[in-house]
Design brief:
Order of helices and strands: HHEEEEEEHHHEEEEEE
Distance between the termini: 17 Å
Number of strands: 12
Radius of gyration: 17 Å
Shape: globular
Strand content: over 45%
Strand order of the largest sheet: 7-8-9-10-11-1-2-3-4-5-6-12
Structural class: alpha+beta
Number of helices: 5
């Protein structure tokens, strides 16, 4: 379950006035064009689908997120478990500290229709539209929203809602094909910080098992 949650680390519908529908897409376009790097803290809540009449269980984790467009990003989970997801532009690395295990995948094969592609990988809106159907959604919780639906129906991702406060990324709401919902809320967001190249370098810890997929 941990690994499934990580991979899902790396979008809804009602009628509103036309001006509101434009806001989310405009924010996404401005974000992709102008925000080339970023740093933030995040809180992620994953809720499993309800079973046998019982409500779905929710699990919360926290950590930090950094990215440099196109194609480099890093999620560091700190609580309750130490885990990392690092994309260096060629390879996607997943590290589970409890298991001392690293999973290595080719980045191009792993990222196409994922939330990470929406916020860190694409160079422009046209690149996103190659993998996602994008549509603006109603304003909610003081944020402008875009729904992104993968064009590839064979993946694990059903949809992603991307929330912006102005042009700043504020939230992701991810629904997978199993009905699991993951909500990430970003805080202390820094726009276009100078991030050293070493931020996105990954070296397997001594003694770790490395699995290539």
């Amino acid at each position: 379950m941990k690994k499934t949650r990580l991979w899902l680390l790396a979008g809804l519908i009602c009628t509103v006035a036309g001006s509101a529908w434009a806001d989310g897409l405009e924010s996404l376009e401005a974000f992709v064009k102008t925000v080339k790097s970023g740093r933030a803290e995040f809180t992620q809540t994953v809720t499993a689908p309800p079973r046998e009449g019982q409500p779905g269980r929710a699990k919360t984790s926290t950590g930090t997120f950094e990215f440099h467009r196109p194609g480099k990003f890093k999620f560091d989970y700190r609580k309750p478990f130490a885990q990392s997801i690092v994309a260096d532009g060629k390879t996607l690395w997943l590290y589970d500290a409890d298991l001392n295990q690293v999973t290595q995948r080719t980045q191009a094969q792993a990222l196409g229709s994922t939330p990470a592609a929406l916020i860190a990988s694409a160079a422009d809106l046209r690149a996103l539209q190659a993998d996602f159907a994008l549509e603006a959604a109603p304003e909610r919780d003081g944020l402008q929203w875009v729904k992104a639906t993968p064009k590839n129906k064979d993946g694990q991702l059903q949809s992603v809602m991307v929330g912006f406060q102005g042009d700043a990324l504020a939230a992701l709401e991810i629904l997978d094909s199993f009905g699991q919902r993951s909500v990430l809320k970003f805080s202390k967001v820094e726009v276009n910080p100078a991030l050293p190249a070493s931020t996105f370098e990954f070296k397997a810890p001594a003694g770790a098992d490395v699995l290539k997929q």
